[in-house]
Design goal:
globular, Arp2/3 complex 21 kDa subunit ARPC3, two-stranded antiparallel ribbon, 2 strands, mainly alpha, 7 helices
Length: 181
């Protein structure tokens, strides 16, 4: 990587970390009992990295953020790993949709559904391993609780990419490009 590219990655990773440390990353939550689902502003620098320099840069910036979360995050290692999988699946979903030559709106829809499906898979594992009591409280049985939780998680992930991450990253990137030219 060129020095300028490394500096850009370090800056975006630092911004993601500052957002996390400042508390902005946990400012917007789903209502209880799903308040562990957070609309995290720290994902936006990762998407900006991807939109500017591509897949490797997006993964690199999120990996730095992940390493920080492993030192200071919540519910270590599960919380940081789930965040990492969510963000990386968003970036890979966007990248795959570009390779499929989809238009911009379809790319974002594709990426949001891709993320939602990946996160449902990982949530089944985490919920059944660590949160059976939570699932039993959500529904009248473990299966109903898991179904409700997966439905809410799926909707949350689609909304997170479609109406939060991508639009904010796009607006910020447009502003940056406007001032650079």
């Amino acid at each position: 990587m060129k020095t300028k590219t490394i500096a850009y990655a370090a800056l975006l990773a630092a911004i993601a970390i500052v957002i996390t440390v400042s508390g902005l990353s946990t400012l917007v939550r789903m209502p209880p009992p799903f308040s562990y689902l957070v609309f995290d502003f720290a994902e936006i620098p990762v998407l900006i990295a991807y939109m500017t320099y591509g897949l490797r840069m997006g993964v690199f910036v999120e990996t730095i953020h992940f390493l920080f979360l492993m030192l200071r995050g919540e519910f270590i290692p599960i919380g940081p790993l789930m965040k990492y999988v969510a963000v990386i699946s968003t970036v890979f979903g966007l990248h795959l949709s570009v390779k499929l030559k989809l238009n911009e709106y379809t790319r974002v829809v594709f990426a949001s559904i891709f993320r939602a499906l990946i996160m449902c898979f990982f949530n089944v594992i985490v919920m059944l391993t660590f949160f059976r009591d939570f699932l039993n409280k959500i529904g009248s049985s473990l299966i109903i609780g898991l179904s409700i939780t997966l439905a809410v998680t799926f909707i949350y992930n689609v909304i997170h990419v479609l109406f939060f991450d991508y639009p904010l990253a796009k607006i910020i990137l447009m502003r940056i490009r406007k001032y650079r030219s």
